[in-house]
Amino acid sequence: MTSELKLLPCPFCGGEAYTRAYNDTFWVRCERCGVETQDLHLTRPQAAEEWNRRAPARSDAVARLVEACKATLRAWRPCDDMRCECSSCEQYAELAEILAAVEKEMQ
């Protein structure tokens, strides 16, 4: 009795995947866009395991950190002088810039 692992949809196009075999090696390929697993495997389950491996989702901790940074920026009172170059204003600007880049990546 063969129990093959269920293949997840293609991570790039959402297409259906299937296992391919050649000379006792196995890999997985997307029917729609043709992307394949990088390595050849000795068993179908190994090929399926590689295909189904995904980068970990961003954790809730990252979202909480972003919200904490936003709250810190809202509470921070930089100097009124827009030309100020004090360390506090420089840190504020740097944190705001980093936070904007992180939020852009999270979209």
The residue-averaged pLDDT reads: 86
N- to C-terminal distance: 44 Å
Counting DSSP H or I runs of 4 or more residues, the number of helices is 3
- SSE succession: EEHHH
Work out the oligomeric state of the chains in this entry.
Answer: single chain
The proportion of residues forming helix, as a percent range, comes to 40-55%
Give the structural class: alpha+beta
The amount of beta strand, in percent, is 5-15%
CA radius of gyration: 24 Å
pLDDT < 50 stretches: none
The biggest sheet amounts to:
2 strands, antiparallel
Order the strands across the largest sheet as they lie in space: 1-2
Number of domains: 2
Global outline: rod-shaped
Q: How many individual β-strands?
A: 2
Description:
This protein has helices spanning 44-52, 60-75, 87-106, and strands at 17-22, 25-30. β1 and β2 (25-30) form a beta hairpin. The chain has 2 domains: 1-55, no CATH class; 60-106. The protein has a two-stranded antiparallel sheet. It is α+β, with helices and mostly antiparallel strands and 107 residues long. The longest helix has 20 residues, at 87-106. It is rod-shaped. It is built from 3 helices and 2 strands; from the N terminus they run ββααα. α2 (60-75) runs antiparallel to α3 (87-106). The mean pLDDT is 86.
Notable characteristics:
107 residues; 2 domains; two-stranded antiparallel sheet; 3 helices; 42% helix
